[in-house]
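User: structure tokens for this one?
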Amino acid sequence: MRGVLKLTIGLAVLAGLLVGADRMAVGVAEGEAADKLVSSGRLGARPHVSIEGFPFLTQAAAGSFDQVRLSGDGVTVSDGRQQVALRSFDARLTGVSLGDGYRSATVRSASGSGLVPYPDVSRLIQGAQPLDLSYGGPGLVKASLAGVPVGQGRLHSSGNTITADGFQLPGVAALLDGAANAALGPRSLTLTNLPAGLSLATAEPRPDGLLLTFQGHDLRVLG
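Assistant:
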């Protein structure tokens, strides 16, 4: 009986050591992955990386991970001229395969989201006259010119291009001259640099900003 008890205790201690070693290894790997994503130019800021699934060491030996999660508040998007930071960026990468001595990585599929505050949306989507955009309801944005509300329009996306159009002037503003109508013409922006090679799926107005959702298939995120 004592022999069985000692063996059981020994196995339990060994299992605990193995789990501890596995968790230490995954922590180191997550930090290295975050650094490589930034140095590769796939992300504009260092994300938090979480390699999911257990045990990690078995997945690492095979060079394949079922799920990897990226998150952070400093990850950026760009229109090719200027970049803005996403709030609450979160992405899930499925089927991550490593190659070339862990110097390259491909992803079978990915999805994610992030929020762009309205002041940053306004910076990116400017036309001949600057407009300040704010939430106008589901699918809608309000526009103001020099602090004066001047209209409300639809916001939609196609590919990586986001467009605000169909602005309707409110009662008093409808009596203004053609300059106001010109200021409220369609506005669009095309995102040319998205996190981890993802593509824009949707752009949805929310009270606190524009919620962007992303998707991608067969992506190369390293190498």
